[in-house]
Design a protein that fits this description.
The protein folds into two domains: 163 residues, Rossmann fold; 123 residues, UDP-galactose 4-epimerase, domain 1, CATH 3.90.25.10. Helix 1 packs across helix 6. The protein is built from twelve helices and 14 strands. By secondary structure, it is α/β, with parallel strands linked by helices. Keywords: NADP, Oxidoreductase. Pfam families: NmrA (PF05368). This is NmrA-like family protein.
Length: 310
């Protein structure tokens, strides 16, 4: 078995820490690139790390000389820093770049949102430089989708917002562990020629809003409180938050694409199935309580999301 040599940039986040752990467990040689302010004190024994400033192209090039695949897992605040990788990779032997996306393809409306536009700009910059890329698209994460209310589902308070026709339209969700397993299966040993220049979708669960509501009812033994927003109202909210430069625009946009029935198509038709992985079901996550909690959010943000139920 031949392993790909992997460099991970962004290893400490809620998603990235799980993906990083799965890559290390796979047996592939993994090293961490980290910015000066990052903490690497808890890295597994034997995993090398290199402090690097993405604005220092020579340093980035030196860090990537013995790497086959660069996997970026930075959060929203780090999207633009990936241009440092794009600028350096052509001067190295790196064969594949996996920029941070971890969502779904956006239409014209979604690309008005800065973080979504930034992801595409990184991808396009890599293509202009002739760098082979792989984009991973899991849709929505089950933990944030079901635990926080951000997209209109709130298990704890037994309530749901149907936006547009989301009651009858499919949402595509993946647990963090499924995404981590997929990264390991995709990048640890697979020949790069099978991966380059693909946008690979992941699909652990697809369910309609109505099916989610039924699961909520089964969990609580009581009908959920249901709110309804028209697509016109959702569009109005997207535009308002865009004009104000507020991050909530992305949450309203997620509701929009679900309510319009676009989510399955926005992860594409190139769907990767993780071999021998037992996928979670909606009932296991909601009714049986097997859903792992999402990262902590501030009380202020919780209050804002709470206000999106009306």
């Amino acid at each position: 078995m031949t392993y790909n040599r992997i460099a991970v940039y962004g290893h400490r986040g809620w998603v990235s820490s799980a993906v990083f752990a799965a890559l290390v467990k796979s047996g592939a040689p993994v090293k961490v690139l980290y910015r000066p302010s990052s903490d690497v004190s808890d890295l597994p024994k034997g995993v090398p790390s290199i402090e690097v400033d993405m604005d220092d192209q020579e340093a980035v090039e030196a860090a990537l000389q013995d790497v086959d695949i660069v996997i970026s897992l930075v959060g929203q605040e780090g999207i633009t820093r990936q241009h440092g990788l794009v600028n350096a990779i052509p001067q190295t032997n790196v064969k594949l770049f996996v920029p941070s996306d971890l969502a779904f393809r956006c239409d014209e409306q979604g690309l008005q949102i800065a973080v979504n536009r930034g992801k595409i700009e990184v991808e396009e910059a890599a293509k202009r430089k002739g760098i082979p890329t792989t984009i991973v698209l899991p849709g929505l994460f089950a933990e944030s989708f079901l635990c926080t209310g951000m997209v209109g589902v709130d298990i704890a308070k037994n309530r749901i917002v149907f936006s547009g026709d989301s009651e009858h339209q499919l949402v595509n969700i993946c647990t963090r562990e499924y995404v981590a397993a997929a990264y390991a299966a995709l990048f640890a040993t697979r020949p790069i020629s099978e991966l380059e220049n693909r946008a690979i979708g992941l699909s652990e669960i697809q369910a309609t809003g109505g099916e989610v509501a039924k699961a909520l009812e089964k969990r609580h033994n009581a009908s959920p409180t249901i709110f309804r927003h028209s697509l016109e109202e959702v569009d109005r909210q997207v535009e308002y938050h865009l004009q104000k430069g507020l991050s909530l625009a992305n949450l309203w946009y997620c509701r929009r694409v679900w309510g319009a029935g676009k989510l399955p198509e926005l992860i594409g038709s190139d769907i990767w199935e993780v071999e021998d992985y037992k996928k979670m079901t909606l009932e296991e996550l909601i009714v049986d309580g097997k859903l792992v909690g999402y990262r902590e959010v501030s009380p202020e943000f919780e209050a804002i999301v709470d206000g999106m139920f009306y």
